[in-house]
Amino acid sequence: MPRQARLDTPGTLHHVIIRGIEKKRVVGDDKDRKEFISRMGDLSTEEKTTIYAWALMSNHAHILLRSGPLGLSKFMRRLLTGYAVYYNNRHNRHGHLFQNRFKSIVCEEDAYFQELVRYIHLNPIRAGMVPNMTKLDGYSWCGHSVIMGRKRHDWQERGYVLNWFGKQKKEAKNRYRRYVQEGISLGDRPDLVGGGLIRSLGGWSNVISMRRHGAQDFSDERILGSGEFVEQIIEEAEDLVKRQLPANRRQKTIDKILQDICNMRGVNIMELSSGSRRRFVSEARRAIVCRLVKDHGIPLAEVARHVGVSTSAVSKIISREAI
Question: Is pLDDT above 80 for 229?
Fold first, then answer.
């Protein structure tokens, strides 16, 4: 079955799940963890992407965020591509680090914001990486410690989360912590991350009830929310696609950068795409690769097709430029 398009309207609340390829590790030690978090924070500021909750595990990560003006996909491409290049270079490995397609779930904020913050921040306890709430309060690799005021990341939106729990900061922090602790007994919560109709309607019990009564409701595996919310999001996404597709902005961006840099450096585009290794062609290729990957988050494989070299060659260029 073909994969569905992403619902990527700017300003949308997303629960993003990133997984290592074949369930392999995506961080090897604390240096890797610091690198991932630093990149995530820097990019969130640069791309105006707001991060509310996150948890970095051994072979996957969860992020609750609101996409910036350019949407979710560019932010995630830049984060995952840049980190994968760093990780492969440091650990002397090659190939994909993450599953090709990260999972993103559009979330109905009023109904699910608090539950998702709690679910994400309890990941280290559910996985046995942290034994209890006391340890979680100061745990460095999860956004809970920032909400508790034990760690500081200026890019994480602490105040907005606390406002859901009270007007006074101390009172809100205590209520937030109690709410998170109460979630430990709820377990894995498949209704928050499961499939289509189950998630949209809040669990199998609601699905069965509606079927018994012959009721119908909208559902979509990309959305966590009520049927009305699902319908609204899909309509908005369809309108956005209608506006964006004719513009073909991504290809135009690639073509413009190719043309501008080749013209500036006196390089023929055909010579570039043929894989020529002449020095001035290689220098133009390096400049193009860095612009497309670093500034616009274009996937390495797509860049490689335009500049006449392999994906691994593009990866080496990025490594040398220390993205």
Answer: no
Q: How far is CA 53 from CA 41, 149, 187, 239, 308, in A?
A: 12, 14, 18, 29, 40
Nearest CA-CA partner of 199 in 313, 91, 108 = 108
In the predicted structure, residue 197 carries a pLDDT above the cut 50: no
In DSSP terms, 66 is beta-bridged to 13, 50
Record the pTM.
0.67
Six-digit token string for 172:
């809100």
Q: What is the DSSP string of 69-86?
A: TT-HHHHHHHHHHHHHHH
The helix-helix angle for 300-307 and 311-320 (nearest 10°) equals 100
- Burial of 200 from C-beta contacts in 10 A (0-12 / 13-18 / 19+): buried
Q: 237 and 252: one domain?
A: no
Q: Are 195 and 181 contacting, i.e. CB atoms less than 8 angstroms apart?
A: no
Contact 161, 148 (CB under 8 A): no
pLDDT of residue 216: 43
User: What are the DSSP calls for 95-124, one per residue?
Assistant: S-SB-SS-EEEEE-HHHHHHHHHHHHHTHH
CATH number of the domain within which 145 lies: 3.30.70.1290
- What is the residue range of 52's domain? 13-186
* Residue 155 burial (CB count, 10 A): 17
Rounded-to-integer distance, Cα 8 and Cα 277, Å: 39
Terminal C-alpha separation, the chain: 36
In a shared domain, residues 34 and 124: yes
Helix (H) or strand (E) holding 281: helix 279-290
Residues 205, 221, single domain; the answer is: yes
Kindly report the average pLDDT of the chain as a whole number.
81
Q: How many whole angstroms separate alpha carbon 216 and alpha carbon 204?
A: 14
Residue bearing tokens 């209520």: 175
Domain total for the chain? 3
